[in-house]
Specification:
Belongs to the GDPGP1 family. By secondary structure, the chain is an alpha+beta fold. 25% of the residues lie in helices and 23% in strands. Strands 5-1-4-6-7-9-8-13-14-12-11-10 form a 12-stranded mixed sheet. A hairpin with a 7-residue loop joins strand 2 and strand 3. The longest helix has 17 residues.
Length: 367
């Protein structure tokens, strides 16, 4: 299990299970990310002097632990049985008969309260851990907040976690100008991953899972070990080292077709991936994203809907992590069954080749 620890020195704000103080009239807190420098290749300004956990990592884990300590989680996800499924890919299975897949009916009120926030209308809500927005200083800042940030993300605890620290990252109302999130929000998500600076922290996005009509959001949680797709072999399809900062690869021997974008230039990475996602959206192609490696690596999984279930794979399922509701399903899970399920969601070869050409063209234009 990943745990929080006290940050010493300049950032001695929190200890484990110690929430941010809530002065009278304050509904939550706003965390200002440290400013980007040039290409947004962030240095670890948010780290403690001893090289320990960053301020953002500590606050996030402390707030989530406090939410769990108060009994708001439906179950203790750290107590769920896990196993590595036999085979070469090493898929991971979790037995969790209480996990509740996303249901628009159940989560409608949960998200509706955040979809129309206006100045001075921030409500006190236990699930709202804090907010994040871009800052202008070299070091991060935390300040009391009574109104939603103009451009930011609300960090909301998921009471039905898939893994430790599971949160929703919901754009504030000002960013819901259309039915789709924009490059600013994707860039903010990558910078959050960078400033958390914890190898266990992963950010996810599913294009086909709006809880409320028009409300798109990210998710994030902590995985102690690499996800199976992160260990998959890759081949380079675009090497931008000579012209740009983006490297584009595709997975090899993985049952779900995927492209991998790698760069230390977070601004360029966000621009390229966002433009590709807009193209997929315009072509009504569903996809999922995994942001890992402290925000410097993005996995893109284009998908088709499963004809049997009528659903798409979630981003963590695309990454090789599956939740099973019954002991029988958990015990009988096999690499063959999972691979067939993934393959049925994978786009056709021709469509994937077209996507690769599009990705290379967009990456080349970004230089």
């Amino acid at each position: 299990m990943v745990s929080a620890s006290k940050v010493e020195g300049e950032y001695s704000l929190l200890s484990k299970n110690s929430p941010l103080d809530q002065p009278e009239g304050v509904k939550t807190h706003l965390y200002h990310l440290s400013a980007g420098h040039g290409n947004d290749s962030l240095k670890s300004f948010a780290c403690s002097e001893q090289g320990g956990p960053t301020l953002l990592d500590t606050i996030l884990l402390s707030q989530w632990d406090n939410f769990a300590w108060k009994g708001h989680l439906d179950y203790d996800v750290t107590a769920c049985q896990l196993k590595v499924i036999e085979g070469g890919i090493k898929f991971v299975g979790q037995l969790n008969n209480k996990w509740n897949s996303f249901s628009p009916k159940e989560y409608y009120e949960f998200f509706e309260s955040f979809s129309s926030l206006k100045p001075n209308s921030m409500k006190s809500y236990e699930g709202l851990l804090f907010c994040i927005a871009q800052g202008e200083k070299d070091r991060p800042e935390v300040a009391p907040l009574a109104s939603p940030p103009k451009d930011g993300l609300l960090l909301i605890a998921n009471a039905y976690p898939v893994e430790y620290g599971h949160i929703f990252l919901v754009p504030t109302a000002v960013n819901q100008l259309s039915c789709y999130w924009d490059e600013r929000m994707f860039r903010l998500a990558t910078k959050i991953a960078s400033e958390v600076n914890n190898a266990a922290f992963r950010v996810f996005f599913d294009s086909g899972t709006p809880i409320v009509s028009g409300q798109k959001f990210f998710q994030a949680c902590y995985f102690a070990n690499p996800l199976p797709v992160e260990s998959a072999s890759t081949v380079v399809v675009y090497d931008g080292n000579a012209r740009s900062d983006i490297l584009v690869s595709e997975t090899v021997g993985y049952p779900l077709k995927a492209l991998v974008f790698t760069s230390d230039n977070l601004k360029a990475l966000a621009h390229v991936v966002s433009e590709i996602c807009f193209s997929l959206h315009d072509n009504t192609t569903a996809y999922s994203l995994l942001i890992s490696n402290n925000g410097t690596k993005v996995f893109l999984f284009p998908q088709v809907k499963n004809l049997v279930t009528g659903c798409f794979l979630s981003a963590w399922e695309c990454s090789g992590y599956f939740v099973y509701h019954t002991k029988s399903e958990f015990d009988n899970a096999s690499e063959t069954e999972i691979s067939n399920r993934m393959a049925s969601a994978s786009v056709q070869d021709g469509a994937f080749e077209d996507l690769k050409h599009l990705c290379c063209a967009i990456a080349a234009r970004s230089c």
